[in-house]
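Data deposition worksheet. Section B asks for the primary sequence of the deposited chain exactly as it was used as input, without tags or linkers unless they were present during the calculation. Section C holds the resulting structure in token form. Section D is free text for depositor observations; keep each observation to a single sentence. Incomplete worksheets are returned to the depositor.
Section A, Depositor: J.P.
Section B:
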Amino acid sequence: MTFKHLEERSAYEERYDSATVERCRSIEDHFLSPEIQQKGLSDGRGFPDWIMPLQIFHLTGERYRNRKETINERMEKDRQRDAMLAQTRPPFMRCPSCGQPMECVDTSLKYGFEEGERDRVTFFLNCKECKEVHHIYENGTPIPRKPLLCEKCGKEVEFSSEERDGKYYYIRTCKHCGHIEERMSTLDEEEKNPTKEELERFERDKKRFCISEEQGKRFLEWEKRMKQIDDQKEEHLLNVELYDRVKEVKSLTIASLEKKLRKVLEKAGYSDLQITMPPSGREIVLEFSIRDTKDSRKDLESRQTLSETIEKALEMTNWSLYPESVTYRLGVLNGRIRGYESQEELETLMRSRMKKKPKKKKSEGMTVEF
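Section C:
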């Protein structure tokens, strides 16, 4: 018998909604417990008065948002599993003891629950003559297993299976004491039916926690508005920081720039700085050349050291190095530096510098535990 994974969509919807109800119930049980009820606010309100509804509101909305996509993913996964079971054939294998071909008595899947782990088809092969059983993957690789032991004498038992009255049974027969243990497949076991009270309670909770299409759309709209507000707040904070940084920028003339660079570059082992200004245009761009006085420093190291030294020196000024412009030939380096004059240009410069710095991590969504 081969187990079929894919079911009607309603079965997936029912399981998803049941999980939603259980998760919301757990929040209520937690906040309504005597331990949490004893914790209150200065105005006399208890924590459940404001935290519990907020958490349930977020959870029910998220469950609505992810419902359709999650169910589609689960159905597609089960569809793929059924296809694997239908298309994969057991490998031919002879009994190691008698050499007779072994027959497949059960086909199943070993599910890949860990990240990056895939589902794999497994087979139970049985030898009619020797009664040997082998559990293998689809490629013939044996699956290590602990021996099945008799519950009476503790010796190893033989394993077999059979179908009776439309139900599947696993049978363990001890070849030492003769004890037989029979177990029905869990797929055929009768599930315990919920009581009338349990069903009524579930329906009430389902109406509370599995929100309607209209309620779900309102939640998505609210979530969208909250994101816009957060984005606007973040943009405002960035702009406040940007304007503060622009105010701190020291505006240097070309003469002041040359003096500043000459000083820091000489300390870094460079000399003979020469700056020229090409014909005027929309942008203020200076070309420079300089000599590396350290013979041990070659092309890449010399260019990197020069770029880092200049960028650090110009960090809070109205000048910026074109890093890709720096070239090296036999100890002489050339490059370009751009100047910024207007308020708009300075804001553009500082915004680009702020983006290069690592961002602070956003605080996670509000979760409250006691």
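Section D:
The helical segments are 9-31, 34-37, 51-87, 196-209, 213-248, 254-267, 299-313, 343-356.
The first helix runs from residue 9 to 31.
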